[in-house]
Amino acid sequence: MSFLKKAPQAATTSGGTGTTATAEIPVKVQRHTGEKWLSVAFLAPALIFLLFTNVYPLLYSLRLSFYSWNMMVPLSVPKFVGLDNYTDMASDPVFLIAVKQTLIFVTAAVAIEFLIGMGLALLATSRVKAMGVIRTVLLVPLMMTPVVAGILWRTIYHPQYGVVNWLIGLVGIPPQAWLGNPNQALPAVIAVEVWQQLPVVIFVLAAGIQSLPTDLYKAAEVDGSSMWQTFRYITLPLLKPVIIVILMLRIMDAFKIFDIIYMLTYGGPGRQTEVMSMLIYKQGLKYFQVGEAAAMSWVFLLAIFVISLYFIRQLLRGN
Amino acid sequence: MLSYRTKRRVSNVGLYVLTGVVLVIIAFPLYWLLITSVKLDIDVAHFPPVFFPTRFTLDNYLSVFETENATKFWVNSIVTALTTTFLTCLLGSMAAYALAKTYLASAIRQFLILWILVTRIFPPVTTAIPYFIIIKNLGLADTRFSLILTYTSYGLPFVIWLMLGFFQDLPADIEKAAIVDGCSMWQRFTQVILPLTLPGLAVTAIFAFIAAWNEFLFASILTSFSAKTLPVVISGYMSDKYLRWGEMSALGTMMIVPVLIFAAATQKYLVRGLTFGAVKG
């Protein structure tokens, strides 16, 4: 995310460095136009690739969103329906449930990850040794194929043979259905998400804490500041840019959740864990209502875009 | 940093116990996967769970390899992930290099950087439907090529974003020196800049590889047989019958253990890569 801060700086100073460079190295000026076109040549392959594989499919999907089309009906053609797919969404209970479950999922998962992550990052940066071992252990969930993690956690949550039920049995709680229970399925899925993504939060916050200037802490210690005061008035304000970045990254990634829910619950029981990605997938690729699914995709995209803009503005304001 | 000598001694034990408990919780699923893959079926479907099995079997591994076309699915996964890694790193680092330099008007660079960032945050499911239709219409369904295309599309913004950070971190003097020596832009890129950012590039490549290696959504909708990759094969083991979980654990173990060994060997650099964008700058 560093470019968010650096790019504007570079933009304002580029004129300056340009002139100093002129004084020192005349060669650069002569080459300047050539370099510009070479830069374009360096950029072109990636940008053209993205135009075809990203921009075009998205525009295609935007067009589809104004049509009604069940792809699997033989010889069927898309029928233009204007904004119907969009207006229908507002009154579609299935869509509204998905919005609600997505928001609960993202908010709860990221909040828990952040709180636990902050605690553990503070611990890890204060006194804990054996960072190599800890780092390796923390990398395990991150590297694990989500599909594998999904099935693995199904065995752990298994009502009959699962480890979780054995664990709560030790303190006398009767076995629970977990993924099969409408009230427990979403929290169970959130727990898996937290397990898999917590390490990123710990890594980023720990690195952020380590990059803070130490003299402030010494001053605080001399002044007799309590641990909480030090955290509240020194660590937290200084860490704000890092916190904004990690929250943004985690929120954006949490919206993407698909594989794990697909494996754990497939959106069930009922629609308890049917987040937006799951709903779009089912609508488009199970029921083949591609027009509706495309409209949902676009609403989903725009919502995420607006949320990320909010964070980007926060970041830029901080600088 | 937050510690004080007086409190230190008191809380040290608690601290290590807490850290230990958290690490055990985080690592337990991996242990469970490994142990399930070598358990006998009767120990898998057993309550209370068998945490320390005394009898072992390799039947699950043999059965995974004896599945029809097992080799083919491995080849698919390896070829797709490696090609994607190569393409994203090549195209991505070139683009990032151009964006890190100031030759282009800053408005254009800002716009492109924002575009890349926005592309990076798109949930893959939002392009799943157009991909499905377009790939089908192009007659590319069930080919490794279709996977490489879509994976590269999702990998590129990520690689550009990471490499941009690494390039901007290099001191400008290095490049100036190379200019004075008369290096062309391509020479500077391949002989000066890339070697200097090699650790960063390696980390980026590892992440790109893992993302492609683990990818499931596109693989499941764009392939049916010929180009099927391992995550799709594993998802096929899912059934309500508990007993197939031995095989899925065996295949899951084989899929993630090489990645984990590699990750453990490079953990320091990987974590730097993970935290790089957020903390630096």
Give a description of the structure.
The complex is a heterodimer of chains A (319) and B (281). Chain A has helices spanning 2-24, 26-64, 84-90, 93-126, 131-143, 146-157, 163-170, 185-210, 215-222, 227-255, 259-264, 276-285, 290-318, and strands at residues 67-68, 79-80. With 319 residues, chain A is mostly helical. Chain A folds into two domains: 17-64, no CATH class; 84-318, MetI-like fold. The relative contact order of chain A is 0.12. With 281 residues, chain B is mainly α. Chain B contains 14 helices and no strands. Chain B has helices at 5-37, 41-44, 59-66, 70-100, 106-121, 125-137, 144-169, 172-180, 185-196, 198-214, 217-222, 230-236, 245-265, 267-279. Chains A and B meet through helix 1, helix 2, helix 4, helix 5 and helix 6 of A and helix 1, helix 4, helix 5, helix 6 and helix 7 of B.
What characteristics describe this protein?
heterodimer; A: 319 residues; mainly alpha; MetI-like fold; 2 domains; disordered N terminus; B: 281 residues; 14 helices; 77% helix; 0% strand; globular
